[in-house]
Amino acid sequence: DYLTMVVLALRALTSLRQYGEAGNLISESLVSQRFPSAEQVNMLRMWAVLVSLRSGMNMAAYDSVRYACKLRPHSYAVWNLFNRVANSGGNAKSVYKFVLRCLLRHPE
């Protein structure tokens, strides 16, 4: 299946530290819209966070991890990843605004 092939290629590219190529593969895969389920798209977006973070593209990682936080607002793992991305370099004011909006949407 196409998703398995993409994930295997991403694993190979990240192990070789070819983060630019891995990012291009993720972008092209997401644009092609070959994935029928939202879970498959979410998996690729999590790969986008990893690749962006390791390649030093902090703003791209921040955008991707915000998407993941909106999908899973009660996941500790996602918020830990958000914290790591936010601390790696970003605008503290926009981080504060995003977290405040999430808290207002999900007060529990």
Output the keywords.
single chain; mainly alpha; 6 helices; 108 residues
Mean pLDDT: 84
Distance from N terminus to C terminus (CA atoms, Å) equals: 39 Å
Helix percent reads: over 70%
Figure out the total of helices. 6
Q: How many β-strands, per DSSP? A: 0
Beta content comes to under 5%
Instruction: Give Rg in angstroms.
Output: 14 Å
The secondary-structure element order is HHHHHH
What's the overall geometry? globular
| Helix/strand structural class | mainly alpha
Given as residue ranges, the uncertain stretches (5+ residues, pLDDT < 50) are none
Largest sheet: none
Please explain how this structure is put together.
With 108 residues, this protein is mainly alpha-helical. Helices cover 80% and strands 0% of the residues. It is built from six helices and no strands. It has helices at 2-15, 19-32, 38-55, 58-71, 76-87, 92-105. Helix 1 packs antiparallel against helix 2 and helix 1 (2-15) packs parallel to helix 3. The longest helix has 18 residues, at 38-55. The relative contact order is 0.10. The model has no long low-confidence stretch (mean pLDDT 84).
